[in-house]
Each structure stands twice: as structure tokens, then as C-alpha cells.
From TrEMBL:
One of its GO terms (biological process) is D-gluconate metabolic process. Keywords: Kinase, Transferase. Belongs to the FGGY kinase family. One of its GO terms (molecular function) is gluconokinase activity. PANTHER family: GLUCONOKINASE, SUGAR KINASE. The keyword Transferase applies. This is Gluconate kinase. Residues 22-266 form the Carbohydrate kinase FGGY N-terminal domain. CDD domains: ASKHA_NBD_FGGY_GntK. The keyword Cell division does not apply. The lineage of its organism: Bacteria, Bacillati, Bacillota, Bacilli, Lactobacillales. InterPro entries: ATPase_NBD (IPR043129), Carb_kinase_FGGY (IPR000577), Carb_kinase_FGGY_CS (IPR018483), FGGY_C (IPR018485), FGGY_Carb_Kinase (IPR050406), FGGY_N (IPR018484), Gluconate_kinase (IPR006002).
């Protein structure tokens, strides 16, 4: 017999099952924009990765073209939406993540006077050193939670004001890449607390620009964007761009946060004591607290994520980029062989490194190939092998390089423990997580279980989850746990403890002693670079 009630119930259930909401996370990184479409279960339903160059025309420079980045964002959104072919109303919103510390000078018509000066640009090193030495930098750090380093817009502004005064005077606005993109799309200048926090000019205790930092930088509040929360929403996109992208201009966009804090959210490392260790091109160790915390020794940052969520940790310049250097400079023949055999060259190198015992038979590598941020915050830092003997081989050198990267992350963890306590668990992510050897090194050196979350593009997912929270699609950020699983758990191997416990203190003592000479060798290298440029 036909049962109308049962038919209606089944139909409604089918509609509920088939109905999907979608959210896009846009991750503006140092060398690419990743645009990721997530459904309401956290699964990736669309992906685009648009690359752009990093300009390093002279020593210490690291810049990007803001128009190239903007085009990459438009292309990414266009590609993902066209492939997804969503029904009207299914896309609930778009949320942003962006790399921290970028600076663009704009004229009165909001046209760029400079390229985007990135976190990797070290030309303000002289002024960062002066602030650290005269004690003023400590005062600023204690209010902003951002260590004094040439990465910050704060030190970049001081450098520009002193060394390019004409350019500095032309500027009407001082913004980062995310603020520039938002202005192009929506015609408003807004900056979220998380990105502002990373400028080094934002007071984390009164949630406003810091008067002392602004005075030292030589700028005023009315030259900066309006401050808003990371959950703030934008609507009314420029119709020309909306037409190109293929998006309803009324679609809500969420400001989002900076990439580091969102990476923690994206791997479900937001509960007290849950620590995220990331190694991509660079790396970081971060943990979330419910209020801002400052390190009396100035070794770690404190950045805003969302109400009652602050991310405390330390970034390192030298992660996977060091492994790339080892491959290209020390193992070029193996790289060619791997390409011919159609195998991953990094897999080949880790296989070579795995034949060497833990501790590399006493060979230590300081991985400071591009200066260093946490925990020493020294842009002049340089890399070195220590303990090299005739018995050491290239295999020892590759293992020592991998260990050196993890040693440095461990020193960040030591500093972090003094501020927020011992981690209760470690979530490890980034390109390195593909390597079983590197994952095991992390567990052995940290002497703690290491979990590898089952998540794709954690930073973009973090942006999407923050967007879902802003739009009321989820009730709490902790719901991210529904989207993130765990694939591997690595347990520390006690057989390695003796070697690593002996070598880590030597690594730390050496880095402190060498700091007295880093500036001398860095100055020599800059002088040599200048001579080469002049002769060409």
C-alpha cells in the first residue's frame, strides 16, 4: 500500500543528505596562493595553487608584486568555482589567511609605491639590532608580543624613513598584502587584529595601535587601515571582479587571520597544551592560550586568532629549504639519478640518511642558511657544520642537516615551555610529515608522541573553519575536530635518547657562542656581494 507519510519522510531525508554547504579558504602564502573549496564535512571539493615569484634583486631583499598576488587570487577563485559548478546559495562564504609581516606603501589613490616587502626581507637588520641593544625593543615587545626583528613592518618603516625618506613621505597609507587585496575587492581599508598584531605596532592588551611604536615608526593612526576582528565580514564585492570570478557579489567574505594561528586551528591544535609543530619551507612551534602571554626573554611571539584564542610560539626561517639546499648542493648527482628513475629525490636522501645512526656520529649542523627567527632572533645568523672529521660522509651531512632543523625547533619548544608549560600532545604537519624518518626524529628529539593529522591544506582549512564560525555555520571553533583525523602516531625510541640528550646542549651552547661572530661574517658577506654587484 502506498504510504504518503513514509514517502515524504524519505524525500526530506534525501534532501537533507544531498544538501551541501561550501566554504572557500584562501591562503596567501610567500610564494603562492592556495584556494581550497571545502564542503560542510571538511572534505576538499576544489583546489587551485597559483604561484608567483619572490624578488631578491639585491642582498637581504625579499619582495613580491602585489598585482601578481591579486591576479593569483582572482585566478584561484575563478578556477575553483568554475570546476565546482555550485548551485545558487551553496557557497556560504570565503575566508582569508595571509602570510604575516608584509608591508606595502600606497599613495593617496591607493596605488602601490612599493612591492610587498615580505617577512623574509632583512634590510631593516641595522635598526632591529639598535632597538634590541638600546632596550626600547624590549618595551615594544612587552606590549605587542612581536619580537624585534627585520621581518616586522615596524622595523621596516624605521628603515624606510631613515634610508628612503622621499619615498616614505610620498606614502599616504601603510598596509599589508591582505589589506591591499581587500581594498581592491571591496573598496575599504580594513585590517584584522591577527595581521595587525604581527606588524609589531599593535598593543595586545588594549587591542589598538600602540602609540610608542607608531611614534618610533614615524606614522599616525590615520595612515593605517581600520582595525576589525578576525570574524568581521565584508560584502558588496566590486562587480567587475565578481563577474570575472563568477561569484555573487553579495557573497560574504570573512577577514580571517594570519597564517600561523590559522595553521593551528586547521590541525585542531587549539586546546590548552596541544602543540602544533610545522615544517614546510620554514617552520614553527605554536600553542593556543586563552589570554595573551609574554616571554620575559623575548624569544616567542603572541598572536591573536579569535576571541579568547591567542597563539604563542616561535617561527624558524630554516625548514625544508635547508633540505633543498642539501639536495641541490651536496647531492646533485643523486637528484639527477632520482629524476631519471622517476622517484622522489627527497625520499632517496632520507633513505641515505636513515643508514646513519642517531646523532650522526657527533656531527652537528646549525641550519641558519637564511638568518634565524626563534629562538635567537638574529638575521645575521649563518649555518655551520661542527664536529666534522675524516670519518664523516655526505650521508652523515644529510642526516645532521635534518637533525639540525629539529634541534632548532626543539630549542623553540624549550622556550615555549617556560611560558605556557609542557605540551600535552604534539600535532605535526607540513611537507616534512611525508617522511617517516623525519617524523621519528621529531618524536625522538622531543621525547614525546607525535601525531600526524589527516588534513589537507591545514591553513586554508583553518581559514574556512573561522569563516564558518563567523557565519554561524558552526557554534564553536572546537568543531574543527570533526574535520581533522589522525593517520600516524610516532612514539619516541629510547635507544636514541642518549645521543640526542648529549648533543642538544652542545647545539644550544654553540649557537649562543657563535652569535658573537654572526654579525662579523654577515657584514663580510654583504661587503663581498656589494663588490660583485659593483663590478658587474
Amino acid at each position: 500500500m502506498y504510504n504518503a507519510h513514509a514517502f515524504i519522510v524519505a524525500f526530506v531525508r534525501k534532501e537533507v543528505i544531498e544538501k551541501m554547504d561550501y566554504m572557500i579558504g584562501v591562503d596567501m602564502g610567500t610564494t603562492s596562493v592556495k584556494t581550497v573549496l571545502f564542503d560542510n564535512t571538511g572534505k576538499v571539493q576544489g583546489y587551485s595553487n597559483n604561484l608567483y615569484p619572490l624578488y631578491q634583486d639585491i642582498p637581504d631583499m625579499a619582495e613580491e608584486d602585489p598585482e601578481e598576488i591579486f591576479s593569483a587570487i582572482v585566478d584561484g577563485l575563478t578556477t575553483v568555482l568554475r570546476k565546482a559548478n555550485l548551485k545558487p546559495g551553496e557557497l556560504k562564504g570565503v575566508s582569508f589567511s595571509a602570510a604575516m609581516h608584509s608591508l606595502i606603501l600606497l599613495d593617496e589613490n591607493h596605488k602601490p609605491l612599493t612591492r610587498a616587502i615580505t617577512w623574509a626581507d632583512n634590510r631593516a637588520v641595522k635598526y632591529a639590532d639598535e632597538l634590541r641593544e638600546n632596550g626600547v625593543g624590549k618595551q615594544i615587545y612587552e606590549k605587542t608580543g612581536t619580537p624585534i626583528h627585520p621581518m616586522t613592518p615596524f622595523t621596516k618603516l624605521i628603515w624606510l624613513r631613515n634610508e628612503q625618506p622621499d619615498l616614505f613621505k610620498q606614502a599616504r597609507w601603510f598596509v599589508g598584502i591582505k589589506e591591499y587585496v581587500i581594498y581592491k575587492l571591496f573598496g575599504v581599508l580594513k585590517e584584522d587584529y591577527s595581521i595587525a598584531n604581527a606588524t609589531g605596532m599593535f598593543n595586545i592588551f588594549n587591542m589598538d595601535w600602540d602609540d610608542q611604536a607608531l611614534e618610533l615608526a614615524g606614522i599616525t593612526r590615520d595612515q593605517l587601515p581600520e582595525l576589525v576582528d578576525t570574524t568581521d565580514q565584508l560584502s558588496g564585492m566590486n562587480e567587475d571582479y565578481a563577474r570575472v570570478i563568477g561569484i555573487d557579489p553579495a557573497t560574504p567574505f570573512v577577514m580571517g587571520a594570519s597564517d600561523g594561528p590559522l595553521a593551528n586551528l586547521g590541525v585542531n591544535a587549539i586546546e590548552p597544551g596541544v602543540t602544533a609543530v610545522t615544517i614546510g619551507t620554514s617552520g614553527a612551534v605554536r600553542v593556543v592560550t586563552d589570554k595573551p602571554k609574554i616571554d620575559p626573554k623575548g624569544r616567542v611571539f603572541c598572536y591573536y586568532l579569535a576571541p579568547n584564542k591567542w597563539v604563542v610560539g616561535g617561527p624558524v626561517n630554516n625548514g625544508g629549504i635547508v633540505f633543498r639546499w642539501v639536495r641541490d648542493q651536496l647531492f646533485a648527482p643523486e637528484k639527477i639519478t632520482a629524476e631519471q628513475m622517476k622517484i622522489d629525490s627527497y625520499d632517496l636522501l632520507t633513505e641515505i640518511a636513515s643508514k646513519i645512526p642517531a646523532g650522526s656520529d657527533g656531527l652537528i649542523f646549525h641550519p641558519f642558511l637564511g638568518g634565524e627567527r626563534a629562538p635567537i632572533w638574529d638575521a645575521n645568523a649563518r649555518g655551520s657544520f661542527f664536529g666534522l672529521t675524516r670519518t664523516h660522509t655526505r650521508a652523515h651531512m644529510v642526516r645532521a642537516a635534518l637533525e639540525g632543523i629539529v634541534y632548532n625547533l626543539y630549542t623553540v619548544m624549550i622556550a615555549l615551555e617556560e611560558v605556557v608549560g609542557k605540551p600535552v600532545s604534539i600535532q605535526a604537519t607540513g611537507g616534512f610529515a611525508r617522511s617517516a624518518l623525519w617524523r621519528q626524529m621529531l618524536a625522538d628529539i622531543f621525547e614525546q608522541d607525535v601525531t600526524i593529522p589527516e588534513t589537507v591544506e591545514g591553513t586554508a582549512l583553518g581559514a574556512a573553519v573561522l569563516g564558518m564560525y563567523s557565519l554561524g555555520l558552526i557554534d564553536d571553533l572546537s568543531e574543527v575536530k570533526k574535520f581533522v583525523g589522525a593517520t600516524n602516531v610516532h612514539h619516541p625510541n629510547p635507544e636514541t635518547f642518549e645521543a640526542y640528550r648529549a648533543l642538544v646542549p652542545i647545539y644550544i651552547r654553540l649557537s649562543r657562542q657563535l652569535q658573537t661572530e654572526y654579525k662579523a661574517i654577515a657584514d663580510f658577506q654583504r661587503h663581498q656581494d656589494a663588490k660583485k654587484k659593483a663590478s658587474n
